[in-house]
Specification:
67% of the residues lie in helices and 0% in strands. The chain contains eight helices and no strands. The longest helix has 30 residues. It starts with 13 loop residues before the first helix and ends in a 25-residue tail after the last helix. The N terminus is likely disordered.
């Protein structure tokens, strides 16, 4: 399975595809082995991770919007960390930082997605507002998704009697704090990439997404945004 259906480019070298093949092939083998070994929860976790990661290339096929290269494999790896390592293996119970780390990472990516959404009205061109305004929008988007997830966990616990929130309020507040920390980093990293070209970890996702989708980011240019000029008042 490929991560996305992308525009025609030069063929990627075989070594660049090898980790991706190992990841997807290993997950397939894990699901099959778990099913044969009579471990349905582990098999379901592996299959669910592949299904969620596979939504990205499917979305590209339907919409024509191209995702950053390798993002589907990154989503697969994240889902394996959450479903397989966290739930099936039990790292959520055995490690206090596992859940928090995943919340931080997801909020980083969501903040970058929020920046991409904030650039839609200008088609990727520098906005007339200050960069920090985009950052506020990005953090708000990530925080909104994080809050919706916490509400989802609370709802399934109340309806089905599960224990997704585990320690209740302390777990929720820890998740919210982790979400905000990740969102702030993602917003700062994205703004740094837009404003100065600084290549902070994960910020390349934003730049590549805009560059690969000229149909919605037709005015995107791979160079730092210039600072907006202060408005001058004409003399009376």
């Amino acid at each position: 399975m490929t991560d996305t259906a992308r525009p025609p480019t030069r063929a990627r070298p075989a070594p660049a595809r090898l980790p991706r093949l190992i990841l997807w092939g290993g997950t397939t083998a894990l699901a099959a082995g778990a099913a044969l070994a009579g471990r349905p929860l582990l098999a379901l976790a592996a299959l669910g991770a592949m299904a969620l990661a596979g939504l990205l290339p499917l979305y590209t096929r339907v919409s024509g919007i191209h995702m950053p290269r390798g993002l589907a494999s990154g989503v697969l790896l994240y889902c394996l960390a959450a479903f397989v390592a966290g739930e099936a293996v039990g790292l959520y119970q055995n490690s206090a930082v596992w859940d928090l780390a995943l919340h931080v990472l997801s909020a980083m990516v969501l903040a970058l997605a929020g920046l991409a959404l904030a650039l839609l009205p200008t088609a990727g061109a520098p906005p007339r507002t200050a960069a920090w305004v985009l950052g506020v929008l990005a953090v708000g988007f990530a925080a909104l998704v994080g809050a919706a997830w916490e509400l989802f966990e609370f709802s399934i616990d109340q309806i089905f009697g599960t224990n997704a929130q585990r320690s209740g309020l302390p777990d929720t507040m820890g998740d919210v704090a982790a979400n905000l920390a990740g969102a702030v980093y993602g917003a700062i990293a994205g703004i740094a990439r837009l404003s100065t070209g600084a290549r902070w970890p994960l910020s390349g996702l934003l730049a590549e997404f805009c560059a690969r989708n000229p149909v919605i980011y037709g005015d995107w240019r791979p160079r730092p945004f210039a600072r907006p000029r202060a408005a001058t008042r004409s003399p009376r």
